[in-house]
């Protein structure tokens, strides 16, 4: 029988999953978090977090999808009938990340196409012009959905095979250029890479851990969905090694481009640039590029083009989570599903984009306690949704998959069963089983609890004070999880939520296949 809608090759899967992982998290938040939290000390903490937390969870999530060959809800149901709601939370997480990620994605497209004019002073005017923001967000989501509407093999896999190598080549080119700018480069490298373990501290370690989750796309459904499209020949453990390697490499290289060039500008002009938050990518970098003459414009084009590629391949993986579920549960056509998702996410992104614009222009609208909606949703995602999904994935694999009462506490029993069921990890299997059963749940709970405390009792100066807004934000996030549970138990528990095979009977491609 003809191969179905699944990844065609190992390389295709690895590149697509790396595409999901490599995104704004690598090119933008990693460098500035590293520079704020002790430079190389943070890089070190990050690599450890990727190895002991991120990669193991990535293996678990990909395997959850792979073993069931279905969307996240069905995948969790196949572990335990009562667990399907975790899939609902996962799909919701993917959707809500999409709604703010596409706003930033729109910015990256605008900055790419505007590179040959001047990007250096457009942040306020662009972000404040609602129509422009909507237009570029729409272009961004449109581009991403064209890929998704073509399916896993013909859309996601094919595009990743072109876009990911292109991204790496461009990034290496940009890094070489930035490292050879001359004056200031050394200071920039020093700022980025000088290990300062005091500045890292406990807070830095936690930041590294949650950055590792977000960056590896753990806890948002994407890995379960991509995992579900992998055939028998794809080894989960080996693939994750590659994905984690590319992801870390790109994050590290991004810092090698950003800080030397910013410090070069500072050395030449004596003007200090902000290297924090959204301003770093969309204001400071354009100022640097614009100071570099015509060649700077070319570099700007490639740089923002590369950031756009990274953002698109991440959003594709988020959209596929939602699309996969809707196609399988409601037997809808892929193209129709994509149109519906495009419209709904665009509508939701409008207030988010407006709020971001207001905050960048110092206007007091659509802000809550001084924070814009993008920041607030990002807080909920990183402090509640992603850790919750990660925790539940580890519990599902570690404790609920095999239920022999006597051997419940044995990680050897778990590892042998996993091996038998096709999760081939070689010698590493005992470590994996031990980590996923005992260590990861504890670590994730610590991250979640401390993340929540940080938001409800934020540090101001050297003491903590209570923030009502913080409390409300966290409560809303937990209420949303409650709603996901409710929806599952009322509407989905006893319904057929579909598998990957349900898609084939509905798409045009499949009806053609059937005719053959
Ligand atoms: N990993 C992506 C990034 O680094 C974001 C992402 C998170 C994508 C979760 C998919 C799922 O930007």
Describe this structure in words.
With 516 residues, the chain is mainly α. The chain is 77% helix and 2% strand. The strands form two sheets. The chain has a two-stranded antiparallel sheet. It has a two-stranded antiparallel ribbon with strand order 3-4. Helix 3 packs across helix 11, helix 5 crosses helix 19 and helix 17 crosses helix 18. It is globular and about 70 Å long. The N and C termini lie close together (10 Å). The C terminus is likely disordered. Phenylalanine (PHE) binds next to helix 1, helix 2, helix 10 and helix 14.
Radius of gyration computed on alpha carbons? 22 Å
Sheet of most strands = 2 strands, antiparallel
Helix content: over 70%
Shape: globular
Count, helices: 21
Molecules bound to protein: phenylalanine
Order of helices and strands: HHHHHHHHHHHHHHHEEHHHEEHHH
Subunit organisation of the chains: single chain
Number of strands: 4
**Strands ordered across the widest β-sheet:** 1-2
Poorly predicted runs: 509-516
Residue-averaged pLDDT: 94
What is the CA–CA distance across the termini?
A: 10 Å
Strand content: under 5%
Structural class: mainly alpha
Key features of this structure:
516 residues; disordered C terminus; binds phenylalanine; mainly alpha
Short description:
Helices cover 77% and strands 2% of the residues.
Helices and strands in order:
Elements: H1 10-21, H2 24-36, H3 40-68, H4 72-77, H5 84-113, H6 123-128, H7 130-149, H8 152-179, H9 185-193, H10 197-215, H11 222-228, H12 236-269, H13 277-290, H14 293-330, H15 334-360, E1 367-368, E2 371-372, H16 373-400, H17 411-420, H18 429-456, E3 459-460, E4 463-464, H19 468-492, H20 500-504, H21 508-515
Antiparallel strand pairs: 1-2, 3-4
Helix pairs in contact: 1-8, 1-12, 1-14, 2-10, 2-12, 3-10, 3-11, 3-12, 3-16, 3-18, 5-7, 5-14, 5-15, 5-16, 5-19, 7-8, 7-14, 7-15, 8-12, 8-14, 9-12, 11-14, 13-14, 14-15, 16-18, 16-19, 17-18
